Amino acid sequence: MTDKQTKTCSTTNMIGYATGDIANSLTMNSFAAFIMLFYTKALGISPVWAGIIMASSTFWDAISDPVMGYISDNTRSKYGRRHPYMLFGGVLMVVAFFCFWAVPTPLLVNKSLMIGYLMVVNLLFRTAYTVFVVPYGALGFEICQDYTGRTKLQSIKTIIIMLANLLGPAMAWVLFFPEVDGASRAASVPSNYFRMGTVFSVVSLVAIMFMLFYTRKDMRDSRTMEMGDVSVKDFFVDMKEIMTDRHFIWVFLYGFAVLIGIVLVSSFQMYVYEDFMKLEPVQKTFTHGGSMVGMMLGAFFASGFAKRCDKKGAVYVGGFVSIAGGVLLATLFLSGILKPGHTLSIIVFALLNSTYWFGIGVMMPVAASMIADISEINEINTGINKDGAYSAVYSFTSKLSQSLALFLTGLCLSWIGYVDGIDVVQSPEVVMRLLLFAFLVGPLLALFALAIIKLYPVSEGFLDELRATRVAE
Predict the structure, then answer these.
(1) CA 238 → CA 252, 394, 396, 465, distances in Å?
(2) Which end of the chain is flanked by fewer CB atoms within 10 Å, N or C?
(3) Structural domain range at position 138
(4) pLDDT classification of 83: cutoffs 50, 70, 90
(5) Predicted TM-score (pTM) above 0.70
(6) DSSP symbols for 231-262
(7) Other CB atoms closer than 10 Å to residue 91's CB: what's the count?
């Protein structure tokens, strides 16, 4: 048994490492929550074009992940395999994120040029994000390798992500979107998004620099590390090995389904705030913040659930809670039992929405820790560390699902008859179709994910037995 296989990590070190997710959260969650509103309401771009812009860049991001993982795993440097890329990618990511919201004034009057600008900025941001997040994820695999510690680390990461989301994108409604001729008007003012992007960019850069400084002790000279052959052919051999790993396949499909649900629900719920609930900025903060608190609580309990009933059992708990939240929302609001405009309706909506996200908060950290387990199994069998590759392919799963979900969001908005533009009032029929998607798509995909993860064979006992077998050899 190597030290690597039994290495643990203190809670303090986990938190220091996880501060990098502040930048991850502020950039990606504000992107997911506001970019469709920014494109359709503030810039007047059609939902279909908005979906195409985001989906194409996210797809590029997804396919570049495995390449970045392979490059990182096979980098020989006295500064290690992860930190140089995290520094370069992190800084470039923040710059590109700022450019999202800083659309040059001359382009605002020319839709074709504006769409071209947004496409380029999206591609630049996604490339930089890959360069940062893939080595960052692999570093997490390396600093903590015990079975239960992995779940704790991923839970801490999720809590920090949601805390940053709560204090950032959730509070954005109050901080950056003051009411102008009614609450719905605030989402149609481009300068509001610019202020938000500026503040989030500065905070993200500080978080990245702190994480790099704190984890400098985890830099390991990789110039003498054992690595496989480096070539285009070997890259594809590695990717084939991972994608055909029977353990990985089930987690891949499970994560793919859950992540599509997350992006669809998070995108649609912003329109629900605006076009159905007609929430004021403070109410949006309360409701959106509640979903962040729900996910934080789910992540907080995820490690305990995994210890008590192993990782698959924790997934079942989270899945059933998530499904219950979505089904109850649909039952109460689609039937007309509760109607918007009443305090009780807002409270119930916020609580049940938080219930859905509580379940997601359990499901996602456990999935990430499963990938780390699978990477260790591969290393035990092959003798070569491929944490970067496994982290990259999991990131690929995330981004591929995002790409598909963002594209589907644009198509669904167009299909239900959603009309883009400033101060447009949607018809009751369109709003009801919107609610149907917002409330039921997530639970249906969560149910599908539970059916998939049932086939996943790895448990703590399975991994301990494999470790013991290799030690005996």
Answers:
(1) 16, 14, 15, 25
(2) C
(3) 3-214+230-472
(4) very high
(5) yes
(6) SHHHHHHHHHHHHT-HHHHHHHHHHHHHHHHH
(7) 17
